[in-house]
TrEMBL record:
GO molecular function annotations of the record: peptidyl-prolyl cis-trans isomerase activity
E.C. code: 5.2.1.8
UniProt catalytic activity: [protein]-peptidylproline (omega=180) = [protein]-peptidylproline (omega=0)
Organism of provenance: Citrus clementina (Clementine)
Keywords, ordered alphabetically: Isomerase, Repeat, Rotamase, TPR repeat
Protein's recorded name: peptidylprolyl isomerase
Lineage, broadest ranks: Eukaryota, Viridiplantae, Streptophyta, Embryophyta, Tracheophyta
Ranges: TPR repeats: 267-300
Keyword Transcription: no
Length: 365
């Protein structure tokens, strides 16, 4: 990303400058939805037996340690009844990771917890769980709707986890504790940026955001809401900065739009959304974002530079289109010179025949 002195200067507290970010493939880190076909994904990796009723296949390796008992885990998952291929749960659609304290999970997620306890941060896996460790003999006829004695299939991404001896869930924390936990995650993410560990950094930001979900933010007012946004918004902006470098422009736009929903004049959010839109060819929308950002940071050279690049790009596109249309509708080419002798010969031959015919006709008279 651009050097710091080329970025809009209104950097939020705790936000990482773009020059500190390096790129690598982090496609699954944020728990973005994998391709969802008619059922669970097909996986060819080795089957690992975790329990008599639980097996695992790794789709993508994680890193670091595995969570221990009472760790607070944050994960995204999809769940299907294996026999009917009916999908009955999907946290990606809800856009809210599941929080699970290992050892304190619900009875119906016992098999899922066994699988999660075997995973590393960032791991993406497919779990097969017997009905005995799922919704049991009777199933569930409310939400989620699971048939009786249904073996289950889970597609899981472990975003990350907190190691806590007491296994304290977010719902049991005070407002200050939740904001403090999120802020520590944000700071950890910033440190990982500096170590050029982009994948792990993105996981930290995702977990920080998970501490401040919509249900939590809805309850906050006044100084507590301001405190929470001072942590949450920089996390979204840093995620957007990563996604720009990863060329995941639609997701970068989404992260910036979340910030602009709370702060419509945020210069960094406008600037980064403008860059993502420009990359997608949405030039009018990109220009609108850059112009609005320029109103609040008129001295910033990076905004002026992006507007200039946008204008140059449009000029180049117009010139290319003009050349294409000129080739299609331009004047017809002149006949090739090497074919002119044939025309001259035929003209001479015709004139010779006419002269001979005229002389013959005069003699006859």
């Amino acid at each position: 990303m651009e050097e710091v002195d080329e970025e809009p200067k209104s950097q939020a507290p705790g936000e990482v400058g773009e020059s500190e970010i390096v790129t690598e493939d982090a496609a699954f880190v944020r728990g973005e939805p994998p391709q969802d076909g008619d059922g669970p994904p097909k996986v060819d990796s080795e089957v690992e037996v975790l329990h008599d009723k639980v097996t695992k296949q790794i789709i993508k390796e994680g890193h670091g340690q595995k969570p221990s008992k009472y760790s607070t885990c944050f994960l995204h998952y999809r769940a299907w009844a294996e026999s009917t291929r009916h999908k009955f749960d999907d946290t990606w659609l809800e856009q809210q990771p599941l929080e699970m304290v290992l050892g304190k999970e619900k009875k119906e997620t016992t098999g899922l917890a066994i699988g999660v306890s075997s995973m590393k941060a960032g791991e993406h896996a497919l779990l097969h769980v017997g009905w005995e460790l799922g919704y049991g003999k009777e199933g569930s006829f409310s939400f989620p709707n699971v048939p009786p004695m249904a073996d289950l299939v889970y597609e899981v991404v472990l975003i990350g986890f907190d190691e806590t001896k007491e296994g304290k869930a977010r719902s049991d924390m005070t407002v200050e504790e939740r904001i403090g936990a999120a802020d520590r995650r944000k700071m950890d993410g910033n440190a990982l940026f500096k170590e050029e560990k982009l994948e792990e950094a993105m996981q930290q930001y995702e977990m920080a955001i998970a501490y401040m979900g919509d249900d939590f933010m809805f309850q906050l007012f006044g100084k507590y809401r301001d405190m929470a946004l001072a942590v949450k918004n920089p996390c979204h902006l840093n995620m957007a900065a990563c996604l720009l470098k990863l060329k995941r422009y639609e997701e970068a736009i989404g992260q910036c739009s979340l910030v602009l929903g709370e702060d419509e004049n945020n210069v960094k959010a406008l600037f980064r959304r403008g860059k993502a839109r420009a990359e997608l060819g949405q030039t009018d929308a990109a220009r609108e974002d850059f112009l609005k950002a320029g109103k609040f940071a008129p001295e910033d050279k990076s905004i002026a530079r992006e507007l200039r690049l946008l204008a140059e790009h449009e000029k180049a596109v117009y010139k290319k289109q003009k050349e294409i249309y000129k080739g299609i509708f331009g004047p017809r080419p002149e006949p090739k010179q090497e074919n002119n002798w044939l025309i001259i010969f035929w003209q001479w031959l015709v004139s010779l025949v006419l002269r001979l015919f005229k002389r013959k006709r005069v003699k006859a008279e």
